[in-house]
């Protein structure tokens, strides 16, 4: 996974020779998005296996969380006992994100490691902007301001695993105890889904919809068809 380039080297006695140079392509920042139960974890597991097979150095991380401080905020954000308003929730998401970005994501990319992140700011747009606030214009403006002000690196590619909301909720419901978001009702997740649909229409180059129906293997093939283009 290296690019061979060539430079012409002038030596002291003015003879020219061609030296192959190996340069690494820039490390990529890839995020995964989706509503509950769409199979993100398995899709990320499989993508990471593929990257390893290709000899690509990567880190895997998640939001909210991913750094020590952000993981502390995650505990608060997901705890069903936490009683906060929508603005506070949004600000905590971006507080966690700022720490994660500075301590984990940017240093990894600078070292040439790919970053595979389970959720990023598109989740704030969909969950806080659409789920909590039903696409309220003031809320969406605040979110865009936070992105502009505090997110210095946007993902190169975002994969939205899309499944009918009710189907995903049924899958998720079969798992462990519900956290503060999983306790929400169908209408909330339908609004979140609308938020992701909006992003897919608005930023089709970065934000790609992946059909999340079918087997894990089928979904992983669809993921790889898109990610493979970056290599
Ligand atoms: P997690 O257990 O990681 O959920 P999932 O397995 O569905 O990814 O919990 C993260 C929850 O946080 C998830 O319900 C979505 C929510 N969230 C937001 O509301 N806003 C955000 O900006 C992020 C990153 C996550």
Write the layout of secondary structure elements.
Elements (H helix, E strand, L loop, with lengths): L2 E8 L5 E8 L5 E5 L6 H14 L4 E5 L5 H11 L7 H25 L3 E5 L2 H12 L4 H14 L6 E6 L2 H9 L12 H17 L4 E5 L4 H12 L4
Parallel strand pairs: 3-5, 3-6, 4-5, 6-7
Antiparallel strand pairs: 1-2
Helix pairs in contact: 1-8, 2-3, 3-4, 3-5, 4-5, 4-7
The protein binds thymidine-5'-diphosphate.
Descriptive notes:
By secondary structure, the chain is α/β, with parallel strands linked by helices. Residues 1-17 have low confidence and may be disordered. Helices cover 49% and strands 18% of the residues. It contains eight helices and seven strands, in the order E-E-E-H-E-H-H-E-H-H-E-H-H-E-H. Helix 1 (40-53) packs across helix 8 and helix 2 (68-78) packs antiparallel against helix 3 (86-110). The chain has helices at residues 40-53, 68-78, 86-110, 121-132, 137-150, 165-173, 186-202, 216-227; strands spanning 3-10, 16-23, 29-33, 58-62, 114-118, 157-162, 207-211. The N and C termini lie close together (7 Å). The radius of gyration is 20 Å and the shape is globular. The protein has one domain: P-loop containing nucleotide triphosphate hydrolases (Rossmann fold), CATH 3.40.50.300. The strands form two sheets. A five-stranded parallel β-sheet has the order 4-5-3-6-7, with helices on both faces. A two-stranded antiparallel sheet has the order 1-2. Bound molecules: thymidine-5'-diphosphate. The site of thymidine-5'-diphosphate (TYD) has 14 residues, from helix 4.
């Amino acid at each position: 996974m290296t690019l061979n380039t060539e430079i012409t080297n002038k030596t002291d006695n003015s003879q020219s020779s061609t030296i192959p140079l190996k340069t690494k392509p820039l490390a990529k920042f890839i995020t995964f998005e989706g509503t509950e139960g769409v199979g993100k974890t398995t899709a990320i597991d499989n993508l990471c296996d593929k990257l390893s097979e290709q000899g690509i150095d990567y880190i895997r991380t998640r939001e909210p969380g991913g750094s020590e401080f952000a993981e502390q905020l995650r505990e608060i954000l997901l705890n069903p006992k936490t009683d906060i308003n929508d603005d506070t929730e949004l600000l905590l998401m971006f507080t966690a994100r700022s720490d994660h970005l500075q301590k984990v994501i940017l240093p990894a990319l600078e070292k040439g490691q790919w970053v595979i992140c389970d959720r990023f700011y598109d989740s704030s747009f969909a969950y806080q902007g659409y789920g909590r606030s039903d696409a309220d214009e003031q809320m969406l403006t605040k979110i865009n301001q936070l992105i502009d002000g505090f997110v210095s690196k946007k993902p190169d590619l975002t994969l939205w695993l899309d499944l009918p909301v009710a189907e995903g909720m049924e899958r998720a419901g079969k798992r462990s105890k519900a956290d503060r978001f999983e306790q929400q009702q169908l209408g909330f997740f339908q609004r979140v889904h609308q938020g992701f649909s909006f992003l897919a229409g608005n930023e089709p180059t970065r934000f790609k919809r992946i059909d999340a129906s079918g087997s894990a293997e089928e979904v992983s093939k669809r993921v790889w068809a898109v990610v493979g283009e970056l290599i």
